[in-house]
Amino acid sequence: MASRPTVSIIGKDGAPTGATHPIPAVFTSPIRPDIVQQVHTGMAKNKRQPYAVSEKAGHQTSAESWGTGRAVARIPRVSGGGTHRAGQAAFGNMCRSGRMFAPTKIWRKWHIKVNQGQKRYATCSALAASAATPLLMARGHQVMTVPEVPLVVDSALFDAGAMGRTAASLGLLKAVGAGADVEKVKGSKKLRAGKGKLRGRRHRQRRGPLVVYSPETDGKELVQGFRNIPGVETCPVTALNLLQLAPGGHLGRFIVWTSAAFKALDEIYGSTTVPSAHKRDFLLPSNVVSQADLTRLINSSEIQSSLNAPKGEAITRRGAVQKKNPLRNKQVMLRLNPYASVFAQESQKKQQ
Questions:
Q1: Using one digit for the tens of pLDDT, what is the confidence trace for 259-311?
Q2: Is 32 helix (H, G, I), strand (E, B) or coil?
Q3: 142 pLDDT exceeds 50?
Q4: Helix 179-186 / helix 166-175 crossing angle, nearest 10 deg
Q5: How far apart are CA 67 and CA 47, in angstroms?
Q6: Residue 144 to residues 59, 126, 134, 175, 287: CA-CA distances in angstroms?
Q7: Percentage of the chain lying above the pLDDT 90 cut
Q8: Which of 85, 87, 304, 351 has minimal CB crowding within 10 Å?
């Protein structure tokens, strides 16, 4: 949750321009890692492509069981002769060249529906986490040289496609202190372990800064300027994606905002009392308890002055007291029934 009232707008040389802007209300949203991880898991499944093994796999041979009486298993065996394949077990999932157990089918449930309210809540939480420097550092981003977080760059630097070239875009990132994060990404490129490197996923590398821009004000030329920088991604402010805001379901993505995109957040997401102008019937999520220190709340003068005086005297409860049988212990019986002594005396008189 961001606590600073305003944020400075950074110029081309990395120094503040003198202009400031209030922190949008979305940065005060509750940070919920559980919701973010659940929504991310569901959304990430919606890009999967169906796969399955061939229906004929493992059954493209003639095989028949030899039955009983041959001191071998009853599994079907390849017929014929003249080759080592003849007589070998076939079809079963335990057999060489047999089919797999429960062959995969393309009608598996590949995609997951995620409620719109949950996706919006997760997006707000991811945005709020992007304004917390400890979360950015915990995620591995190199932000020690960044002037402040969230980092807002003046939109005037993107006029007339000024950042349409990679050299200009990289120079801007270095000027505002994001160059260390880009260098970290460049050094993290490694060869993938396993068969994935044969399937178009040959390398793995970390994620770098995410540049959020306003297409109407900043233009779209900056996408071409940033797309060839390792680890750097771009996203329009009107279509923020949780898969980019919290890669892997981990909060704390380092975001470089343009001033136009930063100013549009209040209109897009609204506040806890003012609804969004772009998302129908949406109010920002708010904390159930804004102050978690209950002891401080209860003992505060405001609450104590409104409480009624305690009724009755304080009751002192005796801790672990041994229970005694009143039928055998006279003192315990008298405590329970004061008339017991009189009753005992009358009983003795009657017996006499």
A1: 999 999 999 999 999 999 999 989 999 988 888 889 999 999 999 999 998 88
A2: coil
A3: yes
A4: 120
A5: 48
A6: 61, 21, 11, 13, 30
A7: 87
A8: 351
**Shortest CA distance to 176 belongs to which of 202, 150, 207, 215?**
150
CA distances from 215 to 146, 211, 234, 260 (A): 25, 12, 11, 9
Q: What is the DSSP letter of 237?
A: G
Rounded CA-CA distance 284/18 in Å is: 30
Q: Residue 236: beta bridge partners?
A: 213
- pLDDT value at residue 321: 80
Distance of alpha carbon 164 from alpha carbon 219, whole angstroms: 10
**What's the rounded Cα separation, in Å, for the pair 124 and 242?**
9
Q: State how far Cα 187 lies from the chain centre.
A: 26
Of the candidates 138, 140, 118, 218, the one whose C-alpha atom is nearest the C-alpha of residue 185 is 140
Task: Write out the DSSP string of 262-315.
Answer: HHTHHHHH--SSSPPSSSTT------S-S---HHHHHTSHHHHTTSPPPPSPPP
Domain ranges of the chain: 6-45+113-269, 325-352
Q: Are 270 and 276 in contact (CB under 8 A)?
A: yes
Torsion of CA 325, 330, 331, 336, to 10 degrees: 70
- Write the class of the CATH domain 6-45+113-269: alpha beta
C-alpha to C-alpha distances, 4 to 24, 188, 253, 270, 274, nearest whole angstrom:
11, 34, 19, 18, 21
**CB of 178 closer than 8 Å to CB of 146:** yes
CB atoms within 10 A of CB 26: 23
Directed axis angle between helix 33-44 and helix 116-129, to 10°? Answer: 120
Q: Which two tokens stand for residue 153?
A: 């760059």
Which burial class, exposed, middle or buried, applies to 173 when counting CB atoms under 10 A from its CB (0-12, 13-18, 19+)?
A: buried
As a whole number of angstroms, the distance between CA 193 and CA 203 comes to 9
Phi, psi of 170 (to 5 degrees): -65, -35
Identity at 62, one-letter amino acid code: S
123 within 8 A of 36, measured Cβ to Cβ:
no
